[in-house]
């Protein structure tokens, strides 16, 4: 079941083929400061999946706060997260034309529309 006031988010980006091993390795030990910034921003149940045939990364998460835009701005201002993005952005290719990287006014990852949801037993 969803937590009341939960925003579910799904995003995609392309992973550069030469960066697959490095991307998986860095995500096997995400820096504690990055995780803390996500937690402070009310992000829970966050995962990133890789679909190799299309070199697609698919991120899903839930936002449980009350001001998503403000909380994402706080994440973008976090120094540890900025260092993380300096490493990981170079491993990715954005689908957003003109995007320069994470934490800017133009999105780096592309949000995708949810077209179906089933949360369990119907009433």
Automatic annotation (TrEMBL):
Source organism of the structure: Lentinula lateritia
Pfam families according to UniProt: rhaM (PF05336)
InterPro entries assigned to the protein according to its UniProt record, in alphabetical order: Dimeric_a/b-barrel (IPR011008), Rham/fucose_mutarotase (IPR008000)
Protein name, as recorded: Rhamnose mutarotase
Chain segments annotated as coiled-coil in the UniProt record: none
